[in-house]
Automatic annotation (TrEMBL):
<feature type="transmembrane region" description="Helical">
    <location>
        <begin position="6"/>
        <end position="29"/>
    </location>
</feature>
<dbReference type="Pfam" id="PF10724">
    <property type="entry name" value="DUF2516"/>
</dbReference>
<keyword id="KW-0472">Membrane</keyword>
<protein>
    <recommendedName>
        <fullName>DUF2516 domain-containing protein</fullName>
    </recommendedName>
</protein>
<dbReference type="InterPro" id="IPR019662">
    <property type="entry name" value="DUF2516"/>
</dbReference>
<feature type="transmembrane region" description="Helical">
    <location>
        <begin position="41"/>
        <end position="61"/>
    </location>
</feature>
<keyword id="KW-1133">Transmembrane helix</keyword>
<keyword id="KW-0812">Transmembrane</keyword>
Length: 97
């Protein structure tokens, strides 16, 4: 009989995957010069980071001994979403005076 904790872990596992896919697709759709304009790594580097992070979220599990790799993938994806993505949006939008 599945427990409440088992359901919660399953939800966490599957909720992280769309976040990773979103980060990868967002990085894929951005202009390459925008990454250098915000003084971050290049577009191919962020595609590798978000793609690798998403693959780690897909391959590894939150609830067993591979949890360390799952967490590393989630952190990589969240760094892009929290730090890089807002700056990319800002630099591509420009001033709206």
């Amino acid at each position: 009989m599945p427990t409440l904790a088992g359901y919660i872990v399953t939800v966490i596992n599957w909720a992280a995957l769309p976040v990773g896919v979103f980060a990868f697709v967002h990085a894929l759709l951005q202009r390459a010069d925008a990454f250098t304009a915000i003084d971050r790594m290049t577009k191919p580097a962020w595609l590798g980071i978000t793609g690798g992070g998403t693959a780690a979220l897909l391959i590894f599990s939150f609830a067993n001994y591979t949890m360390m790799f799952w967490i590393a993938g989630l952190v990589a994806v969240l760094v892009y979403i929290v730090d890089v993505r807002p700056k990319l949006i800002e630099v591509q939008r420009g001033n709206r005076w």
